[in-house]
Amino acid sequence: VPQIYYCSRTHSQLAQFVREVQKSPFGKDVRVVSLGSRQNLCINDSVRKLGSSHLINDRCLEMQNNKKKEESRDKCDEAERKQKRKRKGESAGCPFHQHIPTYSDEVLAEVRDIEQLVVKGRKMDACPYYGTRYSIPAAQLVALPYNTLLHRHTREVSGIKLAGNVVIIDEAHNLVDTITGIHSVEITGGQIARAYSQLTQYSQRYKSRLLATNLRYIKQILHVLKHFILCLGGKGKTNDNTSLTQCTSSTEVHLQTINDFLFTAGMDNINLFKIQRYCEKSHISRKLNGFVEKYQPSVTLYTVPDTKSNTGGGASSVSKFLQQIKQGNQQQTGETQQSGEESPHQSSSPFMHIEAFLLALTNADKDGRVVINKQGRLSQSSLRFLLLNPALHFREIVQQARAVIMAGGTMQPVSEFKEHLLFAAGVEPQRITEFSCGHVIPGCNLLPVALGSGPAGGAVDFSYEHRNKEYMMVELGRVLVNLCNLVPAGVCVFFPSYEYERQVYKFFEDSGVLKRLSVRKQVFREPKKASQVDQVLSDYSKCIQRCKTQGYKAMPLTGALLFSVVGGKMSEGINFSDDLGRCVVMVGLPYPNIKSPELKEKMDYLDATMPHTTGKSPGQIHYENLCMKAVNQSIGRAIRHKEDYATIVLLDRRYFRPNVCAGLPNWISAHLQTISKFGDAFGTIRKVRVSS
Ligand code: SF4
């Protein structure tokens, strides 16, 4: 019997799916297992408290390793083993790595989501992470996150067998971006420098014990790391692995093909496949981590070395260099908070990132680019591998699986999806079946309006040339004031960028528009920090709830207004159902920055590799689709169930263009009203509000 692999983007979406299975008629007799990361499933509190997924993974694997080593050692008694462990500061295997088959039987007997799996694991003192993986072969339905399915190595180590099975990919509108994201690797100057430091010290300490071949590989990796630092503007002699100084280069971002980068980085005669095999077999990343913990905690790399040691060997020179980076960081007020940089403790596995980057460089020259991002300081500079051909990593899935179902509420435009992912992965057109159905709501619950002018009669056009003009912001203010007067409960406004949202908000503040808006709505803004999103949403929702309990008659306040940004923290994964989003306003068309080197490269790649079937180039189509996908994602936040209703205002005359309308989902474009005069649009919205 084929198995079904259901995957989605987040753990909460998977949990929601599992809860639906529980409620369904199959809930009683289907064998379901949910997979998650160690971070989600680990029940060993001393490991969990490490916080970051890298550290949890490393510690767990280290414990399994210690156990294996111990079991294979000469059979000394338990007391002696304990003594040895104490001396070496090691712990034995995890105490919860037990009762795995029994736990697995229990898991398959009843449908459980991740939280319930953890509770069960705690009750049985059995590890849910290994227990759920053990359950895969006997399960009929496996729920798993995207990266477990889409990343080949993760798929293989998790024991997922796709041959002859069915794969369901939910929220598939994200698929191309997700595959690109999973396989695009970035390493920062700080990570390179830390990996360099750790490896230098490791090789110096174990010089006499390491095999000559291993020492050669370590030297090659050090050579590569040194050249990465030089690429980012660091200074040092190319034939000397011990002296490096902080870079002072100017800001510059440029792209290179993989081959050009290998040449620039002095790696053209290094066999990356052999290095990759060495890294895999030797577990050097884990060893370095353990080494740093035992002998050179990463945090002490930043302390000021004494003057004598400063003049000495490689490790101290590197320490000085790292200390300069640290000082540089500290001079940037609040930089750590703004950039969300990891604390030194969290980022103690820099070599893992280096390994992933080296692996990415083994891709074919045409399938990727290297983005060299030089900033004033090395710690802020980075190297990024950009995957241009996501189909490369999807090919195996579509070839092996019996069927792949890609489902999503905002899959439009589908043609690009087929070209870039399916055809490019070798899928025959006759194997593809498209199915699209309308929304669950009746047509009268949705009023999409493309509005071409404001209350003063001026055309609304939020393109780059016009959006900063004062009259455009004045018209925007008038539209919002009118809508807020008319629509009770929640109104969400999506701006094309953070910068424009800030500019408009400032203008509204200075010109008194904000005061007028605040008469009817409490105004909220998307916060800068992701950690504040929940608080803002909770306050927004409470405000609407308060107004609702008074029947929206507690004049003058009738609800809340939320300013958010397309592609921001609130444009995906957050639902503005019912009164949270009775009206969604999309300000302009959020085209991405055409000057971005990465976007340009992607467009050039598509122009060179994809068929030119219409009047437009594939690169141009991709550029336009990026914009429409972002629009669809944002407006799809409202109307979340069959009794929901909302008005969607597309505020820009460019929405009148047939090619723009064609990029909207059918359930919106079928009802779209293009209205040139604001008065007519206002009348239509009022009529719908009165009848709803
Ligand atoms: S074996 Fe399981 S419980 Fe133990 S550390 Fe690893 S993930 Fe955590």
TrEMBL record:
Biased composition (Low complexity): 326-341
Keyword Nucleus in annotation: yes
Disordered, as annotated region: 67-95, 326-348
All copies of domain Helicase ATP-binding, residue ranges: 1-222
Basic and acidic residues bias: start-end ranges: 67-81
SMART domains: DEXDc2 (SM00488), HELICc2 (SM00491)
GO CC, alphabetical: nucleus
InterPro entries: ATP-dep_Helicase_C, DinG/Rad3-like, Helic_SF1/SF2_ATP-bd_DinG/Rad3, Helicase-like_DEXD_c2, P-loop_NTPase, RAD3-like_helicase_DEAD, Rad3/Chl1-like
Localization (cell): Nucleus
Keyword tags: ATP-binding, DNA-binding, Helicase, Hydrolase, Iron, Iron-sulfur, Isomerase, Metal-binding, Nucleotide-binding, Nucleus, RNA-binding
Cofactor: [4Fe-4S] cluster
GO BP annotations listed: nucleobase-containing compound metabolic process
Source domain of life: Eukaryota
MF GO annotations: ATP binding; DNA binding; DNA helicase activity; hydrolase activity, acting on acid anhydrides, in phosphorus-containing anhydrides; iron-sulfur cluster binding; metal ion binding; RNA binding
Family to which the UniProt record says this protein belongs: Belongs to the DEAD box helicase family. DEAH subfamily. DDX11/CHL1 sub-subfamily.
Protein name: Helicase ATP-binding domain-containing protein
Originating species: Branchiostoma floridae
